[in-house]
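Structure first, sequence second, as always.
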């Protein structure tokens, strides 16, 4: 007997699968999420937010995640730390994915949150400086996505979320390497989505606006720059890392099953101004 599936039958199966998944919408109970940069800032907030929505968390960090693991334990959640240095060789990403998946037998969500910015005028940004930022902000997310994608494809489902930036849309000032890397990450998000959507793997990105974290503390301490940014933000305030949690839960859940290759700005209206 032939096992070939006609295009029409295949399309019906996908439509039924989509309806089934969206019944649960934002529930992440039983899901496993691997998140980079969970020791502070956006990564920590997203790990806690996903855990509150029911996900079990794998921390992909260079250093220990004991503090946030204790916080998740207090919430009744469980988590696991996999050491990973984001500027390491490609084989390290493959091994990290294997360890992460071995913990619970699967990983359903990957959030590439860790990032690096180096501020200096374009003429003062050396090749080494640009490459240092590019390795963390572009190459590492792509290598992690490539490491986890085969498992997600095999299980027929998965959510990959990259943390892009307003600089994925704009050039910025004094952030040549960062703007180049984050623009590249937006493009890579779309390229991976184009290839993996057919396998049930959604690849999308969140582009945070000006979020108050350690990475931009110098800007917030500069009163003139701080006010300059505030005047441009329709919401009238800098964002918090927690402002990104809702978008992350949406893109991690069945509610986003038909969202592919999208860069979702969470910016208080900055891009609309």
């Amino acid at each position: 007997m032939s096992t070939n599936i006609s295009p029409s039958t295949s399309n019906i199966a996908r439509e039924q699968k989509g309806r089934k998944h969206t019944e649960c919408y934002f529930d992440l109970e039983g899901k496993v999420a691997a998140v980079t940069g969970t020791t502070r800032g956006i990564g920590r907030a997203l790990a806690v937010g996903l855990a509150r929505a029911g996900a079990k968390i794998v921390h992909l960090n260079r250093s220990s995640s004991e503090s946030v693991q204790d916080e998740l334990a207090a919430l009744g959640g469980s988590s696991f730390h996999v050491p990973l240095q984001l500027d390491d060789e490609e084989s390290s990403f493959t091994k990290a994915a294997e360890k992460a998946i071995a913990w619970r037998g699967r990983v359903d969500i990957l959030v590439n949150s860790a990032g690096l910015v180096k501020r200096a005028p374009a003429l003062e940004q050396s090749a080494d400086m640009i490459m240092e930022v590019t390795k963390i902000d572009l190459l590492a997310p792509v290598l992690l996505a490539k490491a986890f994608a085969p498992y997600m494809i095999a299980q027929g489902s998965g959510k990959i979320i990259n943390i892009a930036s307003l600089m994925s849309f704009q050039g910025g000032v004094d952030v040549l390497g960062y703007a180049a890397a984050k623009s590249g990450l937006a493009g890579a998000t779309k390229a991976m989505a184009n290839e993996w959507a057919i396998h049930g793997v959604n690849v999308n990105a969140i582009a945070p606006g000006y979020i108050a974290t350690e990475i931009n503390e110098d800007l917030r301490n500069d009163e003139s720059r701080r006010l300059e940014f505030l005047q441009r933000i329709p919401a009238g305030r800098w964002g918090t890392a927690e402002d990104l949690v809702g978008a992350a839960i949406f893109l991690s859940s069945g509610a986003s099953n038909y969202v592919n290759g999208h860069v979702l700005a969470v910016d208080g209206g900055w891009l609309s101004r």
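Margin note: The chain is about 45% helix and 15% strand.
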